Amino acid sequence: MSEIEATAKDQAEAPEEEAPNKPDFAGTTIPAEELEKLTGGIVAALKTVYDPEIPADIYELGLIYKVDIDDSRHVNVDMTLTAPGCPVAGDMPVWVEDAVASVPGVSGAKANVVFDPPWSPERMSDEAKVAIGWW
User: Per-residue b/e over 53-69, b at no fewer than 16 CB within 10 Å?
Assistant: First the structure.
C-alpha cells in the first residue's frame, strides 16, 4: 500500500505544531480525489466518537494511529485507548467501526486496539487540550 501522509514514527517525532495526533492514512489505487473525499469523511466520522470520561473526541485526543483504506474501500483503523483498563475498551472499537462504516463510499470497517506506542497526552491536539481545560 502507498502512504499518503506521514508514518506513525514520523508523527511521534514531529514538532507539536505539526498536529501530533494526525493519524497515518494509507490507500492503494483509489484515485486521489476519491481518497481525499473518503479521508475527510473518515476524519469527520472519527470526530463523532468520544471517550465518555473525557470531553474530547478520539481523533483530537490522538487515539487514532493508522487508517488503511484498501481497494475495495474497506477501512482498517489502528487505535489505542488512554489507558489499558479503560472501562469502554470493548465498546469503543465498535463505535469507531460503526462511525467509519457510515461514511459514504466505505464498504466496511474494522478497528484494532493497539498499545504500541503507548498513548500519552503529547498526542492530543490543542483543541483537545482546550476541551479538557489544560489551556
Answer: ebebbbbbbbbbbbbbb
